[in-house]
Amino acid sequence: MGHNLGSLYRKQLFYSILLVVLIPILIISNLVLHVRSFNTVLNKELQRKAVLFSEGFSANVVDYIDQPNTLNIKINSVMEAESLVKEITVYKFNNDTFSAVATTNPEKELSILSNPASNLAWKEKRSVAFLDSFGGDKVWTVIIPLKDEVGNFRSLLLTKMSTADIDLLAKNTAQQTLIILAITIFFIMLLLINHFRFVGIAKLFYRLKNINDIKNRFLYHVAHDLQNPAVTIRNYSASLQQDVSLSKTQKDSINTIHIASSSIIGMVNNLVNLSQLETGAAKLNRTLSNPMVVCQQSIIDTSNICKEKGITIKTEVSALQGLCLFDLDKLRMAINSILNTLISQMSHGNIIISYKPADDKNWVISLFSPNFQPVSTQLTDSQTYAPRENSHDVDFASQMGIGYWVAEETIRLMEGKLITNYEPGQGTNIYIVFEAGHVAKYPDDSEALPPSTK
After folding, report:
1. Domain range for residue 116?
2. pTM of the model
């Protein structure tokens, strides 16, 4: 089992480390691809805008190709109106060369244009666009061949449009995406850290489950091993009690042995029941019945030990009775366990059992003893214990004894509650509470109720 757990843990650790590496890589790769795709779209859109701008402006250039001063005024006014345009230059074809006749760039006045892009545009008589640099900025350069009024190509229009705006937009988008990426990876790391913790918890759970299974098997076998000698001692002591030749002192000693062996058998039965409850082997078979019938059966079950200790059990029957949905055998086992717990810690006195509605939502089986004080003889204040609702309940159940623990688990299995209330000077009430959803009320119940035991 330990080897399998270690192997499982190593596999989970490898899987977790793989996730730590792969998930950020996949997210970053996805981010890079999207940012590149976004930049490509923006650049294509700017390129299209630069080409459309150049084509739209080319009509004005053709009309003033022979008027350089007027053409200079027009191209400068256009560039002032369009902030993205960094340069407009018009070249006239003359003697197999392109010389500048109008430009917004003073450095290009009377310059000669000769590059592969201009040659390609002139040769194929179409616009050519390419990325270039201008004053340290990235620009789209568009070269368009221009026709005169008779359809002859006489000039070239060169336009440079800046990509600064889209570069800034792309940069801001990338920064925002990186921030979101960092936050995403942070939460993913938290998730993976929790995953590591849950792997450790799972490993601990398997170990605890293994230990719990060993404990349950131990309880089951120990209980069965103790049961046989305890039954033998009880039966032998019972037969000795019938021997008339024994003195009173001898009979008292034998009676003590009989009570002790009966208590051991009860404890052993509780161990077996607890083992079944802990392993989930206990199954429910619910039926509608009057709980007082079960209480009467439990009174009969404990009558011998009550007689030996001088304890009287009474029942109080309420005028309003009802049929409760529960497992007859399980409820009988729970009430027997509670009665045995009370009787084992009492030397005399009485116990009163009643069944009545507590309110509109709950019906209660009450076991009251004015002579029983739970846990410690030094209690001076009123105390109420509701198992599974407060942190100290487990301690209380363990101090009350294994019988109380079995009763608590059995009633929980039937979706009820076991509550113990101690009032100094008045006694102890142990309540078995069922919610109204588990009770069918019959004020005129025809089922025969057990007689009150006075």
Report:
1. 2-162
2. 0.49
